Amino acid sequence: MAKALTAAPLEADVVLVGPEDQIAAIPARSRVGVGEWGRGDGGDRLAGQLTARSIERAVWLARGGEVDAIVTGPVHKAALHVAGYRFPGVTELLGSLAGGAEAVMMLVVPGLRVVLVTTHLPLREVPGQLTTERIVRVGRITLTALRDWFAIAAPRLAVCALNPHAGEAGLFGDEDERLLAPAARTLGAAGPLSADTVFVRALRGEFDAVLTPYHDVGMTAVKVAGFGHGVNVTLGLPFPRTSPDHGTAFDIAGQGVADPSSMRAALELAAQLANRKAARD
């Protein structure tokens, strides 16, 4: 975060929320402390507590109108669980803190936006969680965000297929024809289109966003297209929230060599989305 904020001027006033000893030296308009990390002797439990407190306080500031957007760092999900926060990820935690909103995960890199219909689930559970109604709900949240936050007057959606070759007329599974196709028709979206072509078509400018049925098919496309510059955007909240698209940097933590590019992209996109929302409001 320190590197991202000092890389270049940011068109935003920054309020830092986190452990006092971690944020004290980082330039910002103001700081909100949630405890101290110290030497980290509290391990995952302390890390999870400080992380959750930071997110809770940030949401409180956003819901109170004191900030216009939230940017979070990568979060170790296991630490949240050890601290007693039983959410699959930050997206779900944010939805709960925002009054039970259905929070949706969008990944953004230059030229490509991908939305996950299901997020942190074992792969074997995905078909049971995919329903036409769920895909339509996520699609409508996506369309609203594309219009209101990304200023796209007539968004073009595509639905990525679940099975190889979009099921090959039922040969490789019937979910695409039975569940995904009706959702695509309801949304006015293209698809379901095979995963091995839909992202190429989106990168060529044919679609404004692609709805994907499970985590890795969407995340892989985004990270191959622009690793280090991607941004995770939470849709469905009353305020924009962004974060880097990569995970926690355990192997390089504390060595001062972390790449701030994705965090910087998250900061810049949060400022853009907040400005567009403010102009619309």
Task: Give a description of the structure.
The chain is α/β, with parallel strands linked by helices and 281 residues long. It has two domains: 1-101 and 264-276, no CATH class; 104-236, 3-Layer(aba) Sandwich (Isopropylmalate Dehydrogenase), CATH 3.40.718.10. Helix content is 42%, strand content 15%. It has eleven helices and ten strands. The strands form two sheets. It has an eight-stranded mixed sheet, with helices on both faces. The chain has a two-stranded parallel ribbon with strand order 1-2. Helix 7 packs parallel to helix 8 (175-187). It is globular and about 60 Å long. The chain starts with a helix and ends with a helix.
List the SSEs and their pairings:
Blueprint: H1 2-6, E1 15-18, H2 20-23, E2 30-33, H3 43-63, E3 70-71, H4 77-82, H5 90-97, E4 104-109, E5 112-116, H6 126-129, H7 132-148, E6 157-160, H8 175-187, E7 190-193, H9 195-203, E8 209-212, H10 215-226, E9 231-235, E10 241-244, H11 261-280
Parallel strand pairs: 1-2, 3-10, 5-8, 6-7, 6-8
Antiparallel strand pairs: 4-5, 4-9, 9-10
Helix pairs in contact: 7-8
